[in-house]
Structures are given as C-alpha cells and as structure tokens.
Design brief:
The protein has about 190 residues and is of the alpha+beta class. It has a single domain, classed as Sulfite Oxidase, Chain A, domain 2, CATH 3.90.420.10. Helices cover about 15% and strands about 30% of the residues. The chain contains five helices and eleven strands. Strands 1, 4, 5, 8, 9 and 10 form a six-stranded mixed beta sheet that branches. The longest helix is centred in the middle third of the chain and has 8 residues. The radius of gyration is 16 Å and the shape is globular. The chain starts with a helix and ends in a 17-residue tail after the last helix. About 35% of the residues are buried.
Length: about 190
C-alpha cells in the first residue's frame, strides 16, 4: 500500500480534477455586496463584508477532500480564516454546542458540533489553489472541514449560527449521515 492509498478512506477512489457537483443551479453571490452574518448564541454577533473577512487572521491548508459519492481529491490547497479565529471573534456563549452553516442556495444548511469546527484545519475559506473560490465551487466563501464528507463543507456561505440544539441540514434530512466520517464510511443515517 503506497502513501496515497493510505490517505483514501474505505470505499473512496482518487481523482485528479476538482468536479463540480451541485443539486440545482450554480449560485452567483455578488462579491461586492457579500455579507457573512455570524450570530446566534454568541457574545459579539457580527456582519462582515468579504473585504472584512479577508482582513481576519489567515491560514493556508493543504488537505484531502472526500466526497460522499466516493471520490477523493488529495492535496487540495485552501486559504481562509481558521474557524478558531471566528470563535475568538464572536465568543460563543456557554450554551452554544453546534454551528449551523446557512448557504445562499435557498434553504441549504448543514451543521457540526463546535468541537469539530474547532479542529486546526477547518477554514472559512475564500481561496482555492491560490485564487478566489469560483461560483461553481462555492465562492466567494465556503467552509472546508476536511475530516468530514465534503457535503459538510458548506458552499456559498452567508451565515454561521451558533445554537444549543443540533438541526439536521438539507442532505441529512434526505438520509445522509449527520456525523459524516469518511474513515468509518459513515455515508447514510442509521
């Protein structure tokens, strides 16, 4: 088994190009009018323009991405704000346990525990491969959560809502796993 094969979770195969997978239309978010709202159970709710997001502390990550449809793309280069910096900025209240990611794609949400979002490699990303994230890949801003199937990395992000009780997102209500661990082949709800 070579090094790349060891990086593929069970049931996954490596691909070379970054495919565009979208149920419905590709969303265009006006970058000049973009606002990211961060609210819910936080001490300091904020609304940030794209320029303001880009002024927050930044991090570059090279990570492997695993799609629930069985492809994996290795060594993907992303840049953006580490989610830990978002936590420092808004100061979640003690009752906050989850983050709901709301997307410009009407009605699309997904959620994860704050502890998962606090991993060192989780980003609120605005760059892929050294360039702004394109509309087709969820720009101007998306989350990147490498340790989960990629449907947990929300495209066209417009709001981060800190909540006490988890809420199933679009794909999770449709039968996909809420925990989405690719190393356990945790694709579907049980």
């Amino acid at each position: 088994m070579n090094e790349k094969t060891r990086r593929l979770p069970p049931g996954q195969h490596e691909i070379d190009r970054f495919p565009v997978l979208q149920y419905g239309n590709i969303i265009h978010v006006d970058r000049d009018a973009y606002i990211l709202t961060i609210d819910g159970l936080v001490e300091n709710p904020v609304k940030l323009t794209l320029a303001q997001v880009k002024q927050l502390p930044r991090q570059h990550e090279t990570v492997d991405i695993h799609c629930v449809t069985s492809w994996s793309k290795l060594d993907m280069k992303w840049a953006g704000v580490p989610f830990k910096e978002i936590i420092k900025l808004v100061k979640p209240k003690a009752t906050a346990r989850y983050v709901i990611m709301h997307c410009a794609d009407d009605g699309f949400t997904t959620s994860l525990p704050i502890e998962v979002m606090s991993d060192d490699d989780v980003l609120v990303a605005d760059e892929y491969d050294g360039a702004p994230i394109t509309d087709s890949h969820g720009g101007p801003i998306r989350t990147v959560v490498p340790k989960k199937y990629f449907y947990k990395s929300a495209k066209w992000l417009v709001r981060l809502e800190f909540v006490e009780t988890d809420q199933l997102g679009y794909w999770e209500r449709g039968g996909y796993s809420n925990t989405a661990d690719p190393w356990k082949e945790d694709r579907y709800a049980r």
